[in-house]
Design goal:
The structure holds two protein chains of two kinds. Chain A is of the alpha+beta class. Chain A is built from 24 helices and 15 strands. Chain A folds into two domains: about 240 residues, Periplasmic binding protein-like II (D-Maltodextrin-Binding Protein, domain 2, 3-Layer(aba) Sandwich); about 240 residues, D-Maltodextrin-Binding Protein, domain 2, CATH 3.40.190. Chain A has a five-stranded mixed beta sheet. In chain A, strands 8-11-5-12 form a four-stranded mixed beta sheet. Chain B has two domains: about 40 residues; about 240 residues, MetI-like (MetI-like fold, Orthogonal Bundle). Chain B is mainly alpha-helical. Chain B has 16 helices and no strands. Classes of the chains: A alpha+beta, B mainly alpha. Chains A and B meet through helix 1, helix 4, helix 5, strand 7 and helix 13 of A and helix 2, helix 7, helix 12, helix 15 and helix 16 of B.
Chain lengths: ~550, ~325
């Protein structure tokens, strides 16, 4: 019994420790990280600048080297060295990559790497992540401009100037370089820039109810109603007239971003940034959604479903209409297309403002792009690292990553450099196998420059084609308004978090409100709460960021 | 004189202790590994708790973070969510304790009464199965089952219990029930194992003697089975009480949504939101420390009470 007893005590203690541990995270203590360039950098400096200034930097040293590269996304599964593209790049540059990908919660992995000062050579993560600020302020990553000054001036040629200005910190340094950044000076007239934000309807249903105009509240509600009346069920399951993105802890992207852009709501009033949630157009359309619920056109499933449930429903064609990121449902779209080409979702003009201005979806990417790639201060050879980075963002690197090796994955066909038909076919039919075999296109998207690859893109194929082309000419840049949120642990950040928490609860309530009076009451309470916790502090923080951004972008 | 003898006595006792230790050196060596493991992975990291009283920045060492006293605790108690979070945590946990604790005992006792071995094994295996499915998968299944066109609505409508489908997870009033029932369904068979083991350890002679004395099945359950597993029940009860402040994070995480938030926001989820999503590590640690302290107090209290009542306890 004694042994049993102590075992029990042990297990209790262990359980308690685990509780405590899970709260404190990794607590390893360490000295401040050295700000000086690492050893490799010093050696490089001793050698002096290379004599042969001809040709790109990466050509000067093509000996074998393996870099560790952290990708902040657990879904990233591509490997290095097995497919044509990576073999080709290694052959050319001598660089091999060992990708480090979190197996579970990404922030947990990153926090552990940061707190234990063991960041790998390259670090790639979304620009909005808290980790970016932590690494930059903690001097855990090299300023790219310093490395470029020291080892590879070509970096400035390859990088877009306004992108560098955009990411220039108050100390004058640029720490990370983004992918999918839409630098205005590189956007040329007539470039067909896509948007992800779309209003989608199921083609067959939409045609059967007479292709109504859904831009006005009346048209919108009537179309939902007609669809539900004509097609009450899909495969025996009830039809969901309107789908939105997932309702999360911080709100709903379809409402906060897509809908606001469709309504062409200006971000500024009299030259000042303001709270778009107070705009009459936004409230008018939120009331339309409320009305839709009153007419029993909103299914409560949309508040409950997570991404996986939604994807299942999309693949079954359960939604009539959706305000959704088209790229997030591309594979469901293909599945529907294989089943029945009429069942696919097509993009049409969605909810519009009173004067029926065209929808204004955002550029895919925007100014800030998607992820930032950093070179950490732990990097084993920062000279090779910056040269490799420069190569990747240069025209040549973009082409090697996007198209691969000439004759193997691409060739000049009809005067255009493009992927071979067989390669494209595999890409569209079995993406996994394509990644393993070729790994071209955006398999390695870490530094993809959308504007650079545009000229090599294969023509779109149905059903994606229609969705993508809808946005051409409509999509605009909201560059100045990217990355304007205060850091999460600042006073403003805490206020913003409270507002977001509240908003996440409010949005479903607004749609489910029983009457317009109740709706107005909820909105007033929400606005009062914002006043009480001084939300205007967040607005003025954002205003300051916008001013900085505009300067970087050269607007006014 | 008396002093000396006491000292001599204690000395010889120490010597005897050392002798005993050296005789057990292999056993002690094995224990030592465990103790070192605990020191490294459980006790040393406890140093990190102090960030609950500091304004910690993850890129700087803990030691250099400025002290802020009880500010994070005050923030938490002053948070307008505090009452709601605490209510939900306690509500779900107490329900799980009240219903989920006795059920495995009853289940184990009933299983023990099944005479057909094959049937018994079959029931046992089937009841374990849900335990091995992770909550992420099971949560997805629950969402589909309780959705508008899901199987539960289908059955209830066929039975004319409902006229219109109800999206159960969208209604806060059903959330506690869903959380408790799905948790019990998943863990019932698994939790019963320990009681099955305890019952298997009861001397069969007791049952034989009772049968000879003319005891019925119910008599045997109440007079032999239950009293004999009393100790196990008490120990598990103490552990269950101490975990009242914790809810099943995985479960709530997959089942929660903004509509059921008034009933599903619990301490663990809040800590996750603050720590992982908002990077407020100090604040999140303070909340969890508060939780751990309450849990420890509950553990000690429950241990005392059961010791008084049943003479069985953890320590």
């Amino acid at each position: 019994m004694g042994n049993k007893k102590s075992l029990k005590i042990l297990s209790v203690l262990v359980a308690l420790m685990i509780l405590v541990l899970s709260a404190s995270g990794c607590s390893s203590d360490r000295g401040t990280v050295s700000v000086e360039p690492d050893k490799a950098a010093e050696q490089g400096a001793d050698e002096g600048t290379p004599k042969d200034d001809e040709g790109p930097g990466w050509k000067k040293d093509t000996s074998d080297i393996t870099f560790d590269w952290y990708i902040h996304y657990s879904w990233f599964g591509a490997k290095w060295g097995e497919n044509e593209v990576t073999k080709y790049i290694t052959e050319k540059t001598g660089v091999k990559i060992n990708f480090i990908v979190p197996s579970g919660n990404e922030n947990e992995k990153l926090n552990t790497l940061i707190a234990s000062a063991s960041l790998p050579d390259f670090v790639t993560l979304g620009w909005w992540e808290n980790g970016v600020k932590m690494m930059q302020e903690g001097d855990l990553v090299h300023p790219l401009n310093k490395l470029a000054d020291q080892y590879d001036a070509d970096f400035y040629k390859a990088a877009a100037k306004s992108t560098l200005d955009w990411y220039k910190k108050p100390d004058g340094n640029v720490y990370g370089y983004p992918n999918f950044s839409m630098a205005p000076e590189r956007i040329e007239e007539g470039m067909q820039i896509e948007s992800n934000q779309t209003f989608l309807v199921r083609k067959d249903i939409y045609e059967q109810i007479g292709k109504p105009d859904m831009r006005t509240p009346e048209g919108f509600l009537n179309a939902l109603k007609a669809a539900k009346e004509k097609f009450p069920t899909v495969n025996g399951q009830p039809l969901i007239p309107l789908g939105l993105q997932e309702f999360t802890d911080s709100g709903n992207k379809s409402i906060e971003s897509d809908l606001v852009n469709f309504l062409a709501i200006p971000r500024e009033k009299d030259g000042k940034y303001y709270d778009a949630e107070t705009h009459p157009e936004y409230l008018r359309w939120m009331k339309v959604l409320r009305k839709a619920n009153e007419m029993k056109l909103i299914s409560k499933d949309i508040f409950v479903d997570k991404r996986s449930q939604m994807e299942e429903k999309m693949a079954q064609g359960r939604y009539f209409s959706m305000i959704y990121q088209r790229t997030d449902m591309a594979s469901q779209q293909l599945e529907l297309y294989r089943k029945n080409p009429d069942m696919v979702y097509i993009a049409i003009d969605g909810p519009s403002n009173e004067s029926l201005e065209p929808n204004r979806p955002a550029f895919a990417g925007g100014m800030a792009g998607w992820t930032l790639t950093h070179i950490s201060t732990n990097c084993k050879d920062s000279k090779r690292a910056i040269r490799f980075l420069t190569y990747l963002i240069s025209e040549e690197g973009q082409k090697d990553v996007y198209l691969g090796k000439k004759g193997v994955t691409w060739d000049t066909i009809d005067g255009k450099d493009q992927m071979l038909p067989d390669v494209i076919k595999l890409m569209n039919s079995d993406r996994g196998e394509y990644d393993r075999k070729y790994g071209a296109e955006k398999t390695y998207w870490m530094l993809t420059d959308e504007l650079a690859i545009l000229k090599w893109k294969p023509p779109f194929e149905e059903p994606i084609k229609q969705n993508a082309e809808w946005g051409f000419g409509k999509a605009i840049s909201y560059a100045a308004y990217d990355d304007i949120e205060p850091p999460a642990d600042s006073d403003e950040g805490i206020i913003l978090k409270q507002v977001k928490d509240k908003r996440a609860l409010l949005l479903p309530k607004l749609i489910l409100a029983n009457s317009e009076e109740e709706f107005d009451k909820l909105v007033n309470e929400y606005q009062k709460m914002k006043n009480d916790i001084k939300y205007d502090k967040v607005i003025s923080y954002s205003q300051q960021k916008i001013d900085e951004h505009k300067e970087a972008l050269g607007i006014k | 004189m008396r002093d000396l003898s006491v000292r001599a006595g204690s000395k010889s006792r120490i010597l005897a202790g050392i002798k005993k230790l050296s005789r057990q050196k292999y056993l002690q060596g094995m224990a030592l590994i465990g103790i070192i493991w605990m020191m490294v992975f459980a006790y040393l990291p406890m140093y990190g708790i102090i960030i609950a009283f500091k304004k910690y920045n993850i890129t700087k060492p803990i030691a250099s973070a400025p002290w802020v006293g009880l500010q994070h605790f005050n923030d938490f108690f002053g948070d307008d969510k505090f009452i709601q979070i605490l209510t939900n945590t306690l509500g779900i946990s107490l329900l799980k304790l009240a219903i989920g604790f006795p059920l495995p005992i009853i289940f184990a006792v009933l299983l023990n009464e099944i005479t057909s071995m094959r049937f018994k094994k079959y029931v046992q295996t089937v009841s374990y199965l849900p335990h091995f499915i992770s909550w992420v998968v099971l949560g997805g299944i629950m969402i589909t089952w309780t959705s508008e066109g899901g199987i539960i609505n289908h059955i209830l409508m066929e039975l004319k219990v409902l006229n219109e489908p109800v999206v159960f997870l969208a209604e806060p009033q059903y959330f506690w029930g869903i959380a408790v029932i799905s948790d019990i369904w998943k863990e019932l068979g698994w939790s019963a194992i320990i009681y099955m083991a305890a019952i298997a350890g009861i001397d069969p002679e007791l049952y034989e003697a009772a049968t000879v004395d003319g005891a019925s099945r119910f008599n045997r359950i109440f007079m032999i089975t239950l009293p004999c597993i009393k100790g196990t029940v008490a120990v598990l009860f103490v552990l269950a009480v101490s975990s009242i402040m914790g809810t099943n994070f995985d479960q709530i995480f997959v089942l929660k949504n903004p509509l059921n938030a008034p009933a599903s926001d619990v301490i663990d989820i809040y800590v996750y939101r603050m720590g992982m999503n908002s990077a407020r590590f100090s604040y999140a640690t303070a909340i969890n420390l508060f939780k751990s302290v309450i849990s420890l107090m509950l553990l000690l209290t429950a241990n005392r009470v059961t010791k008084k009542l049943t003479d069985a306890s953890l320590f």
